[in-house]
Fold:
Amino acid sequence: MKPTKNFRQIATILMAGSLLTLSACGNTNAEPDTNNNTNNDTNTEGNAETNENEITLDSAMGEVTIPANAERILAPYHEDSLIALDITPVAKWAIGQTVQDYLESDLEDVERIEWNLPLEQVLNHEPELIILENNMESYEGTYEDYNNIAPTYVMTDEEIGDWREQIETFGTILGKEDDAETIISEYDDVVETARNEISEAIGEESVAVIWVTGDQFYIFESNRHSAEVLYSELEVNQPAFIEDLGTAEDASWNPISLEALSELDANHVFLLAVEGEQGIDTLENSSVWQSTPAAQNDNVHIFNDPSNWTNKGLLASHQTIQDVLSALVEE
Structure:
């Protein structure tokens, strides 16, 4: 198998599957505080109204008013969008020592905050603005608890599921609308260039992605996390094996057996695994795996940092594109 160079260490198993659920908090029955004053000189753009010091916009909790010039921002699990807009958060999402590794070059010196947002930890970080997901059951506090600490914006389903919409919203919140538009446009240019390079390199050949953790194997459906970048944006062909799986309907997923992997008809396979992961040895010593087309043709590529593949975001997508290019074009 071909190891791919220069990728950081993987986060643990807790980093995938249900992470978007884990990064939520609170109580959806709470009503937002919308009593902040705006003046008659507000300008309307989309769903937002702004004045010099605050912005009022629609959220998953209804209309909310938040500061227009906040500098200390907490957006657990969505630091990707903040960094893309050149904002360093006051704390970064974590499960114990586990963080989003692909962001560590920007967040190495930023303190961690637990995924369930303990209220004392939030208070200690003194945020001026909190941005949360709308599935709030996993957080320690309620919406009102967090809104009492700092003005709190709760994202809609669209903003959570589509990083482009999220960056546009963050751009509005942070007064960086032009920056948001620019970085999305630049990303689309990167995608187009990479798509052409990959098509020239492998033509109609297909690719499958498997996350290896412990001695278990998780295969990416076409819409699973950053697999959307591979299949939808870069337009790499799916093997029939992946097509037959259909789309992922929720965040949870189940391991696939080694015997089932014997049917994997991909021309190339990306294995996402920590260096020294037991499952890699299992595959290398398996006659079943070695009989697959990718293994027979020495087209199995190993990435030692799966964290960008198990996330969705601008920076995650950029890193995924670089992974694909390094495996298929630059080798």
Q: What stands out?
A: The CA atoms of residues 205 and 267 lie 6 Å apart. The chain is about 35% helix and 15% strand. The radius of gyration is 21 Å.
